[in-house]
Structures are given as structure tokens and as C-alpha cells.
Amino acid sequence: MTPGSVETTEKHDTETAVPKKLSKGIVLGPDGKPCRTCNDVASLFAIAGKKPTTPSSTSTSSTAPTFPVDCPPDVEALGRSSWTLLHSITATYPTTPTPQLQSETKTFLSTFGKLYPCWVCAEDFQGWMSTNTPRVSSRSEFGTWMCEAHNAVNLKLGKQTFDCGRWEERWRTGWKDGRCDF
């Protein structure tokens, strides 16, 4: 949905009408309330007219609002954690997986795309996978595919993309400069 568009509803697989993104950038859940996992904390605090009471230890900026660390994650925290999990899975994936594991991996990704807590993100990932079938015949192929998926999201969000030729150094072996060595 583009900025400035009018709120509409759409049907999910469960046939529950879910409001789409509002013109102010707030995504509502099926209950009609702002979806915690589909919105960033700054937007949630802005619509509530509140400031966090306790700073988060994961805060990257002293001016950016954050939830206390023991609150449910917002869309940004959820995304960072999810990408960490997914990239870590690719990093430990076998170099030559069995046909059964390849099938199970595709099933996992499909299920992940359906169960992801942010329904907008889930639909985007499902849509991306429909035209970019998971490549899981080797660790190298799977890692590159996951990097491409992550870059597609980063492009949508206006974030910097990552050189997919370096995915293994980032997620498996550590940087060549030794900063990850122990």
C-alpha cells in the first residue's frame, strides 16, 4: 500500500478481515488495534503519545524510543532476531543435504512465511518466495538465496543491501580480519 492511501481490508487464509496499513503508517491487527509485531516502537509510542519509561539495553540511539527489554518485540526487533535465526540455519546447513532435508527445508520456509507474527511481513515473504523458489540443494546455494531474500526486504525498507558473495564470512566463518576469532 502506498503512503496516503485509504484504509482497506483484505481477507487472509483464515477468512478474517484484516485492515491494511493506514495512511499514517500504522498497521492494524485483526482486532482493529495497532499490531505490535507489524509496527516499529517509535510509531507505537507516537500514536499513544507516550515515551518509554525504561531505556532498552539494545537501544542504538538515546533519542529513539524503545520498549524496555522485557516487552514483546516490535517489528524491528522481531526482524533482526528472525534474520539472525534464518542466516544461522543457512550457515549450519549441510554442504550436500539429503533430498529429505531439502524437502523439509522448503516446508519450513513455507511454514515460517505463513506463521510469521507480522502478517504484512509474512505476506511479503510468501510473495517473494512464490517468484524466488528457495534454493536448498547446498549450503552455498541456500546461503546466497537467504541473503537475496534479506536484501529484497532491505530494499523495500530503504536499507543498505549486503554483498551476498560474503554471506558465509558474515554468518558462518567470521570476518577475515579476525575480529570474530577467539
The CATH superfamily of the largest domain is known as: ERV/ALR sulfhydryl oxidase domain
Q: What gyration radius follows from the Cα positions, in whole Å? A: 18 Å
Q: Tell me the total number of β-strands.
A: 2
* Content of β-strand: under 5%
Short description:
The protein contains six helices and two strands.
Primary descriptors:
182 residues, mainly alpha, Four Helix Bundle (Hemerythrin (Met), subunit A), 2 domains, 6 helices, 2 strands, 45% helix
Helices and strands, with pairings:
Elements lengths: L8 E3 L5 E3 L21 H8 L26 H18 L6 H17 L3 H13 L7 H18 L10 H7 L9
Antiparallel strand pairs: 1-2
Helix pairs in contact: 2-5, 2-6, 3-4
Catalytic activity: 2 R'C(R)SH + O2 = R'C(R)S-S(R)CR' + H2O2
Keywords: Disulfide bond, FAD, Flavoprotein, Mitochondrion, Oxidoreductase
Enzyme class: oxidoreductase
Question: What do you see in this structure?
Answer:
This protein is mainly alpha-helical and 182 residues long. It has two domains: 1-72, no CATH class; 75-173, Four Helix Bundle (Hemerythrin (Met), subunit A) (Up-down Bundle), CATH 1.20.120. Helix content is 45%, strand content 3%. It has a two-stranded antiparallel sheet with strand order 1-2. A hairpin with a 5-residue loop joins β1 and β2. The chain is globular, with a radius of gyration of 18 Å. The protein starts with 8 loop residues before the first strand and ends in a 9-residue tail after the last helix. Mean pLDDT is 82; it is low at 1-23 and 54-61.
